[in-house]
Design a protein that fits this description.
By secondary structure, the protein is an alpha+beta fold. It has ten helices and 15 strands. Helix 2 runs antiparallel to helix 4 and helix 9 runs antiparallel to helix 10. It comes from Bifidobacterium amazonense.
């Protein structure tokens, strides 16, 4: 039998809140939908550990070396128990009472629910400004017919006639010291101490039913790709209508055709004709904030950028602040020229391109617009 404290990574003195926190952490880590199907057995082990350690009665039995799910098995194999000594736990239980399961109480019908995991995809604009997404999940929900009680028509569970509400019954077992008395969960009430005589036909006495529902998810402005959101109390409802676990939503941001994201900044690419790069020009582009004007500066070079302040992604930790929109300029060089255009370019080349040279890595050539007068002015006048 595994050491449940080690499975959850907690100390044996852990509080109920520490146990619950550790369970949520480990269940997310080993959930088959996240870690992969090969971790299904590990995920079950985590759930088994939590089922025992979150129940005070089961935890007391486990700490004393008795398997809460099979008290008749004795203490063999449990951490700190009487490994290899058969029913010695039951024998000592007769002398020392509840330390070995002789006075455990009934198991509550109401149990906390597990956490659930889902995912959703949003577009980049929703990531920029925030919004709402709707996620469908299939999990256990509260039975509406009985309100979670598990009983039909408002009836209440009655005391079990077999164990008289104790949740366990005494049994005689043979040991090396002779016949001894031990205790085991009552088969009639399954250890609850009460019996539902008229179970709800919808949930069959469990207080919960499998259901598919749509959950509205508030997407905060500035959310990143692969972020995870937590919705408290929106997960799986527990047995007996127990408190629901949490719902975790993995958010994926779909690629955008026009913009890419780098941190809180947005980037786009604008293709302009060579004459606009030489002379400068204004161009309107569509942004998430509507149509905005980008001013192409005179003498613009290939891969130069123009920054539009405050049109990027919302900064999650700085309310009201946004990143920038960075427009990258791509200069389109003409491939077909008329005779007049070719003569102008050749004349420009003769008078202007003689200073072409190798540029050292990391340096930047002077902008074409830096030159004034001479043929550059003629070309500007000719293209105007």
């Amino acid at each position: 039998m595994a050491d449940y404290y080690e499975v959850l990574g907690i100390e044996r003195t852990a509080s109920e809140e520490e146990i619950k926190k550790a369970y949520r952490k480990m269940s997310r880590k080993y959930h088959p939908d996240i870690a992969g199907p090969e971790f299904e057995d590990k995920f079950k082990e985590v759930n088994n550990a939590y089922e025992v350690l979150s129940d005070p009665d089961k935890r007391r039995m486990y700490d004393s070396g008795v398997d809460p799910n099979n008290p008749n098995a004795g203490a063999g194999g449990f951490p700190g128990g009487f490994s290899g000594m058969g029913d010695m736990g039951d024998i000592f239980g007769q002398f020392f009472g509840g330390a070995f399961g002789g006075s455990q109480g009934p198991t509550p019908r109401t149990q906390p629910g597990r956490d659930a995991l889902a995912s959703t995809s949003i577009d980049l604009k929703t990531a920029v400004f925030g919004g709402t997404a709707h996620v469908k999940i299939n999990t256990f929900g509260l039975c509406q017919q009985c309100g979670g009680s598990g009983a039909q028509n408002g009836s209440q569970p009655v005391t079990c006639p077999q164990c008289h509400g104790q949740g366990f019954v005494q049994k005689v077992v043979r040991t090396m010291l002779g016949q001894m008395m031990t205790s085991a969960p009552c088969e009639r009430c399954e250890g609850h101490g009460t019996v539902i005589e008229n179970p709800c036909p919808s949930c069959l006495g469990h207080g919960r039913v499998r259901t598919t529902r749509s959950v509205g998810v508030t997407i905060p402005a500035g959310i990143s790709d692969n972020a995870r959101l937590r919705l408290a109390g929106q997960g799986e409802v527990g047995e007996g209508g127990g408190t629901a676990g949490d719902l975790y939503i993995d958010v994926r941001v779909k690629p955008d055709k026009q913009f890419t994201r780098d941190g809180d900044d947005l980037h786009c690419w604008i293709q302009v004709p060579m004459s606009w790069a030489v002379l400068g020009h204004d161009i309107d582009i569509d942004t998430f904030d509507g149509t905005k004007t980008v001013t192409i500066p005179e003498g613009c070079q290939q891969e130069d950028t123009v920054t539009l302040k405050g049109l990027g992604v919302a900064r999650m930790r700085q309310q009201g602040e946004r990143g920038d929109l960075v427009a990258h300029i791509a200069v389109r060089v003409p491939t077909k020229l008329s005779e007049h255009e070719r003569k102008l370019i050749e004349e420009f080349s003769d008078s202007h391109d003689g200073d072409a040279s190798h540029v050292a890595q990391g340096s930047k050539p002077a902008a074409a617009g830096a030159r004034k007068g001479g043929f550059f002015s003629k070309l500007k006048d000719a293209l105007s």
